[in-house]
């Protein structure tokens, strides 16, 4: 057991090296990654929950990803400057 633990630690250190390896977007930002048939199977299994998700070909296979949404369309009116419309002076007296 000790030998396996030591070997495993060595494999991890060898793979990570100097820490230059980082987050891989195809794995962390996708619903599924694999062959085209696998991705289509996952998409079919998700049914209506897969609506808006696209099958994208990547370097070594395919990904099932959500289309990036523009938050600006949802929040544009809420983020506008209030301008001069908010110019009411309040009669506040400190007690």
What this model shows, in words?
With 95 residues, the protein is an alpha+beta fold. The chain has a domain at 22-76. 37% of the residues lie in helices and 14% in strands. The chain contains four helices and three strands; from the N terminus they run ααβαββα. Strands 1-3-2 form a three-stranded antiparallel β-sheet, covered by helices on one side. The radius of gyration is 25 Å and the shape is flat. The N and C termini lie far apart (73 Å).
Outline of this structure?
The protein has helices spanning 2-16, 25-28, 36-46, 71-75; strands at 32-34, 53-57, 62-66.
Say how many strands there are.
Answer: 3
Q: What would you call the shape?
A: flat
Distance between the termini: 73 Å
Question: Which structural class do you get from the secondary structure elements?
Answer: alpha+beta
Biggest sheet strand line-up: 1-3-2
Number of helices: 4
Indicate the percent of residues in helices: 25-40%
Please provide the ordered H/E string of secondary-structure elements. Answer: HHEHEEH
Strand content: 5-15%
Arithmetic mean of pLDDT: 77
Rounded radius of gyration (Å): 25 Å
Spans of at least 5 consecutive residues whose pLDDT stays below 50 are none
Major β-sheet profile: 3 strands, antiparallel
């Amino acid at each position: 057991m000790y030998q396996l633990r030591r070997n495993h630690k060595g494999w991890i250190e060898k793979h990570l090296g100097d820490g230059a390896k980082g987050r891989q977007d195809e794995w962390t930002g996708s619903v599924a990654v694999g062959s085209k048939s696998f991705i289509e199977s996952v998409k079919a299994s998700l049914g209506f929950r897969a609506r808006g998700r696209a099958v994208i070909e990547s370097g070594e296979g395919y990904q099932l990803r959500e289309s990036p949404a523009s938050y600006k369309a949802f929040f544009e009116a809420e983020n506008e400057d209030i301008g001069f419309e908010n110019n009411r002076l309040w009669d506040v007296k400190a007690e």
